[in-house]
Amino acid sequence: MAFPFMEAVVGLEILMYIFETYLHLRQHAALKLRTLPKTLVGVISQETFEKYRAYNIDKSNLRFVKQFVTIIIDSATLLFGVLPRLWKVKSGDIVESTGLDAENEIYQTLAFLACVMYWSQITNLPFSLYSTFVIEERHGFNKQTFWLFIRDMLKGMTVAIVLGPPIVAAIILIVQKSGPYLAIYLWGFIFVLSLFMMTIYPVLVPPLYNKLTPLPQGELRTKIETLASSQNFPSKKLFVVDGSTWSTHSNAYLFGFSKNKCIALFDTLIQQCTNEEEIVAVIAHELGHWKLNHKIYSSVGVQILILLLFGGYTLVKNSNDLFTSFGFDTQPVLIEFILFQYTIIPVQHLVSFDLNLVTHAFEFQADAFAKKLGYAKPLRDALVKMQVGNLSEMNTDPWYSVYHYSHPTLLERLAALDEPHNKAD
To answer: Which residues of 309-325 are buried (b: 16+ CB within 10 A; e: fewer)?
Structure first.
């Protein structure tokens, strides 16, 4: 008797939903607390704290609904055989309607992905609209118009349509033509692709969504350039990003490849941090990530995981029982990848948890780097102002935060900065 892969996957997804709902309930209870954490008493006003509570409770309520709807749709998709019907009937009809060869796996795969992307947009759109134009609007964050929202969504779809087909076609051909070294060939392709994307992404993608203007000459620019120069950061440009066009949330980041690197500040960050030293401290934190090679370590770790992923894929790709269990009578390359992803759901959650632990450590180390440069107090002040400006979560459940958050909580970062010897040292 064949193993019931599909039923097992649905069972695992439901168990993970129950587990994550439990964590979410713990976090929801923390959000409803009416008392400020002791560290923030006197730093954040009660009025600001009440705004924070209302905003995050609204977001939490939406998360409950979205997770419930998602598990229902995902389970129904598998139990009622939507994927095999979509592959055999709908995508085949689309290819035939264009006059192309319906037996060509590449054409059918692209038609299948178009259907999946269309369905994903439909199911996610109500939640995105509600989040942007109800919750974000209600709490004073949203700056988008409806047409700007639609324009950005269409831009994302256009990028996927332009970049997706050649990548998908290449992967299918590699799988079809490769022999026993399939995993290595697939990894090599993804590695080269990632280097290519790292090169063109900062040049082509950010300008599609944001307007990047040079930071005007002045004391702030001088301080940032002096800091970057002192750390031998090969900065070519210093930009201000028009984040306020979309939202009042703030951020700063570094981008670029090799010696063509840039520093970007959200205009909202400049507005929130009225003290220039605080803005420079945020940049010092970002430079810490670069100086400590966090991106390189992360990239190497991701490449190892990708290689292991492809190795695991080669072990199950020809399993007839796996395909039959999900209702497929053929074994297309894309479907092989999708079914393999389903079978490693528990592993994916464990890997995600481990990656969060790594990024937590990296954040502490970057904070410690800024502290060594003498920016402990301005960084501390900047973190509080960004937290207040973003109305980010202040009361957090420890189980929820360690499982879900890629960054330590504000209280954890402040405690580390206040220590005589930072925990990341």
So the answer is: bbeebbeebebeebbeb
Q: How far apart are CA 312 and CA 300, in angstroms?
A: 18
Query: Which residue intervals of 214-293 are DSSP H helices?
Result: 219-230, 267-272, 276-291
- Do residues 268 and 243 lie in contact, with contact meaning Cβ atoms separated by under 8 Å? yes
Separation in Å, CA 220 to CA 53, 201, 225, 249 = 34, 27, 9, 20
**Using CB atoms within 10 A of its CB, is residue 171 exposed (0-12), middle (13-18) or buried (19+)?**
buried
* CB-based contact 96:102 (threshold 8 Å): yes
Q: What does the chain come to in residues?
A: 425
Q: Could you tell me which of 246, 304, 291, 242 has the C-alpha nearest to residue 270? A: 242
Give the other-Cβ count within 10 Å of 244's Cβ.
15
Which of these, 348, 349, 343, 347, lies nearest to 7 by C-alpha position?
343
Q: What is the 3-state secondary structure (H, E, C) of 5-65?
A: HHHHHHHHHHHHHHHHHHHHHHHHHHHCCCCCCHHHECCECHHHHHHHHHHHHHHHHHHHH
DSSP secondary structure string, 107-135? HHHHHHHHHHHHHHHHHHHHHHHHIIIII
Max Cα–Cα distance, the chain, nearest Å: 74
Strand order through the sheet with 212-214: 212-214, 235-241, 260-266, 252-257
Evaluate if residue 259 carries a pLDDT over 80: no
Angle, vertex CA 153, rays to CA 195 and CA 345, nearest 5: 60
Per the listing, tokens 């499982």 go with: 403
Rounded CA separation 407/366 (Å): 11
Distances (CA, A) of 412 to 209, 417, 421: 33, 9, 14
At residue 253, φ and ψ (nearest 5 deg) are -160, 165
Element (H, E) at 232: none
Q: Which residues are catalytic?
A: 286, 367
In this prediction the pTM is 0.84
| Residue 422 predicted with pLDDT over 80 | no
> Does residue 320 contact residue 339 with C-beta atoms inside 8 Å?
no
Confidence tier at 281 by pLDDT (50, 70, 90): very high
pLDDT at position 424, please? 46
Mean pLDDT (whole number) for 372-377:
94
Per-residue pLDDT tens digits for 82-113: 999 999 887 878 888 888 887 889 999 999 99
State the pLDDT at residue 1. 58
